[in-house]
Write a structure and sequence with these properties.
Strand 13 and strand 14 form a beta hairpin. 30% of the residues lie in helices and 23% in strands. It is an alpha/beta fold. The termini are far apart. It is globular, with a radius of gyration of 22 Å. Helix 1 packs across helix 2, helix 4 crosses helix 5 and helix 9 crosses helix 10. Strands 4-3-5-6-7-8-9-14-13 form a nine-stranded mixed beta sheet, sandwiched between helices. Strands 10-11-12-15 form a four-stranded antiparallel beta sheet. It has a four-stranded mixed beta sheet with strand order 20-19-18-21.
């Protein structure tokens, strides 16, 4: 793989500023953001007042912990535009969640917000190794989902040649990579695996493709998955993080030269880690739930938003800004099976450590009797693998899960292609347990 480390002279000065400079800017911007939210969003005025807090009470960054949290239900309760802090006619862009699990969450952007979003995504793409004039295959979905258009904003700001292929039509994805010869691809890690399968189906060696870097986000993925993708494509695989409630893609980014966690662009987003049960802040280096406060957003300020993502904060390395470790799971999609907490990433790690299995899986939860049961459906990596070899692989993986997680599960190995493919975020968990 090529060395894609950016020149230091190409970085924004704030990326390599001192911690004192960064924190002084954060405090100044946080005071503005709290005041802006309080004065212009009735929800925040009521929330702050109920907690006995006022924006003027913020004297230091540590004082933020005294202010109340914002959660997803608050956004749904104020659907569609009650969380906006500017008149609707000042909103230049609106995005929304799918709403498949409830009322959609709606977010808005002023023109200045879009410019800031473009800036942090451009910074992220540069950190991944992309340079002005490089070609980008953007396979994130376009539409109300922030992924496709958010990446496109930053790609334009950086000066990339971008083609908006979006998700789906996997044979065309491979053909365009083969014909257009992009340097980078932006895509969910699970859909990258589907594209990899299609390379094999078309008889094309992915290691001979033009791709030098893959920028993967929108769902948790492990370092084992990174190694699988890097070896398959002979390219760098780096992590990008974001969520629509905070901005979209580009809240934090892994630097290609270090690949040691995602640097949070702290000049725009202030991170905290809290104990997910008590809500109390924990020290940097301790794992907990990630909380964000926006520092520059005009249309949709967000104050102490509980992301439900589990990670920890670490000191900066390739950049001065703090890093967040790869997300290990979510506090609200954690599986509790017979009293044991399980995350899909733990199942993925066991899968990746088992020879003969492809990196596709789905977890099925059921309750055939009085006890919850888990079945993990995966598939063999090679169609020539025999029934006995499949049973052996299933036993090995089940033993690894038992050893690392502490529960017994049933593992079934299907034919190649036996696990449903995703063209976006993977559907990892199918819960068939009776409700109520």
């Amino acid at each position: 793989m090529k060395d894609l480390t950016p020149l230091k002279s190409s970085l924004d000065p704030i990326e390599i500023a001192s911690r004192d400079e960064i924190e002084a800017l954060q405090l100044e911007r946080m005071k503005w953001s709290l005041r802006h939210a309080y004065d212009n969003v009735p929800f925040y005025k009521a929330s702050f007042d109920a907690a006995g807090m006022h924006p003027d009470d913020l004297k230091s960054l540590g004082d933020l912990a005294k202010f109340p949290f914002t959660v997803k239900t608050d956004l749904r309760d104020n659907y569609p535009f009650k969380m906006f802090a500017v008149p609707r006619e000042k909103v230049a862009r609106i995005h929304a969640s799918s709403g498949t699990t409830g009322q959609p969450t709606v977010v808005g952007y002023t023109q200045t917000d879009l410019e800031n979003w473009a800036s942090v995504v451009a910074r992220s793409l540069r950190a991944a190794g992309m340079r002005p004039g490089d070609m980008l295959h953007n396979a994130y979905g376009y539409g109300l989902f922030t992924g496709g258009l958010g990446i496109h904003l930053g790609a334009d700001a950086l000066g990339l040649s971008t083609y908006p292929v979006s998700g789906g039509m996997t044979p065309r994805q491979v053909r365009l990579i083969d014909d257009f010869k992009p340097k980078g691809i932006t895509v969910t890690p699970s859909y990258a695996l589907s594209i990899l399968d299609e390379f094999a189906a078309q008889g094309i060696d992915p290691r001979q493709s033009s791709l030098e870097v893959g920028i993967f986000g929108a769902e948790p993925w492990t370092n084992a998955m990174r190694l699988e993708i890097e070896q398959a494509f002979d390219m760098h695989a780096v992590d990008i993080y974001g969520l629509s409630e905070v901005m979209g893609p580009g809240v934090s980014m892994e630097c290609v030269e270090s690949k040691d966690g995602l640097h949070i662009w702290e000049d725009h987003f202030y991170p905290e880690i809290i104990n997910p049960e008590t809500g109390e802040p924990v020290a940097d280096g301790e794992q907990g739930e990630l909380v964000f406060t926006s520092l520059t957003k005009e249309a949709f300020p967000i104050i102490r938003y509980r992301t439900r993502d589990l990670t920890r904060l670490l000191p900066g390395t390739a950049r001065s800004m703090r890093r967040m470790e790869k997300v290990t799971g979510r506090s609200d999609d954690m599986i509790i099976l017979r009293g044991v907490n399980i995350f899909p990433t733990q199942i993925e790690e066991a899968l990746m450590a088992t020879r003969g299995l492809a990196p596709h899986f789905q977890i099925e939860l059921s309750r055939p009797g009085r006890m919850d049961q888990m079945r993990v459906l995966c598939e063999c990596a090679d169609a020539s693998v025999t029934g006995e070899a499949r049973r052996e692989a299933a036993n090995v993986m089940a033993a690894l899960i038992k050893q690392t997680v502490g529960i017994s599960v049933k593992v079934e190995v299907a034919d190649v292609g036996g696990v449903a493919r995703s063209e976006g975020k993977a559907l990892r968990i199918v819960d068939l347990r009776p409700k109520g």
